[in-house]
């Protein structure tokens, strides 16, 4: 009887695994089709300096309008795109689209584009960035690439060389989601990032004397010492903004200052609140 039960459990697992494999295959086919049919879009979220609350940039965030599942967020398809290699063409499209859009928004100081580790490591990545800048006409100084901490864990020499080449073009490099990975002070020193983006999980737990506060204070102090600019994500209320400002954090992003929005909505916002004017709550 125990044996039967075991067999039943196994059949269940088998069915479940088949189901997942099928779902994955279907999603992969969808991903290829989406690329061919241009079903990806970018949303743009304002980046603001905490002192004057002026618009200093926008982060481009990928969206996929799936025919049956509806709008999907990157977490739902980027991992699969990495596994299948489709991150190459999808990422190249996102970069080109963000650069084209930034050219159409001359008053926007900077456009930030996310690059995943698998994307960065692909052969010809830096050359692709150079070509995109040339073809779109975006001055490299207006482009910032956001890279994950995990990028520095493997094949460090090649990665550092790639990052250095990008910086020599004038492109700036931000370390994204700082604090969620395992980079050490040593990795930060070996590659001088232009900016550190403190992960929103620290901002969300912010209390005047709490642990998150202590971590943020330490990261800000360390960044200052290394000459790296600072940014915090996920700022949703004035209390968080005030605490971050009090600690000397330079820039922020979050629902308090604007949600990710379509290019159209961003264009409207730019017209209504040009970058030289303060944004929400000032
Ligand atoms: P990220 O770079 O850390 O982007 C910030 C994420 O936080 C975005 O999620 C954004 O919608 C969300 N967010 C912004 N402000 C707030 C806030 O105040 N509260 C809360 N709760 N959330 C906030 P999203 O758009 O789902 O993107 C998730 C991740 O996907 C990004 O994290 C980035 O790592 C990746 N990603 C996005 N676009 C691209 C892309 O074009 N290429 C690659 N390779 N990765 C991308
Ligand atoms: Mg980012
Ligand atoms: Mg993040």
From TrEMBL:
<protein>
    <submittedName>
        <fullName>EAL domain-containing protein</fullName>
    </submittedName>
</protein>
<feature type="domain" description="EAL">
    <location>
        <begin position="24"/>
        <end position="274"/>
    </location>
</feature>
């Amino acid at each position: 009887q125990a044996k039967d039960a075991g067999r039943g459990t196994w059949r269940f697992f088998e069915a479940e695994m088949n189901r997942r494999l099928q779902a994955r295959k279907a999603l992969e086919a969808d991903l290829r089709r989406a690329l061919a049919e241009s079903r990806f879009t970018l949303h743009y979220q304002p980046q603001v300096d905490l002192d004057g609350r002026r618009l200093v940039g926008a982060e481009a965030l990928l969206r996929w309008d799936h025919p049956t599942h509806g709008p999907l967020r990157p977490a739902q398809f980027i991992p699969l795109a990495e596994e299948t290699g489709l991150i190459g063409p999808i990422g190249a499209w996102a970069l080109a689209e963000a650069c084209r859009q930034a050219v159409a928004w001359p008053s926007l100081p900077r456009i930030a584009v996310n690059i995943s580790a698998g994307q960065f490591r692909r052969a010809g990545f830096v050359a692709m960035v150079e070509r995109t800048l040339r073809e779109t006409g975006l001055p490299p100084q207006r482009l910032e690439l956001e890279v994950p901490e995990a990028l520095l864990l493997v094949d460090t020499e090649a990665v550092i060389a790639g990052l250095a080449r990008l910086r020599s073009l004038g492109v700036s490099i931000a370390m994204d989601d700082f604090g969620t990975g395992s980079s050490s002070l040593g990795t930060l020193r070996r590659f001088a990032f232009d900016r550190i983006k403190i992960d929103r999980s620290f901002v969300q737990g912010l209390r005047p004397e709490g642990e998150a506060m202590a971590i943020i204070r330490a990261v800000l102090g360390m960044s200052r010492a290394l000459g790296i600019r600072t940014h915090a994500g996920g700022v949703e209320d004035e209390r968080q903004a005030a605490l971050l400002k009090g600690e000397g954090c330079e820039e922020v992003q979050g629902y308090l200052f604007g949600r990710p929005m379509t290019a159209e909505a961003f264009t409207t916002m730019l017209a209504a609140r040009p970058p030289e004017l303060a944004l929400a709550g000032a």
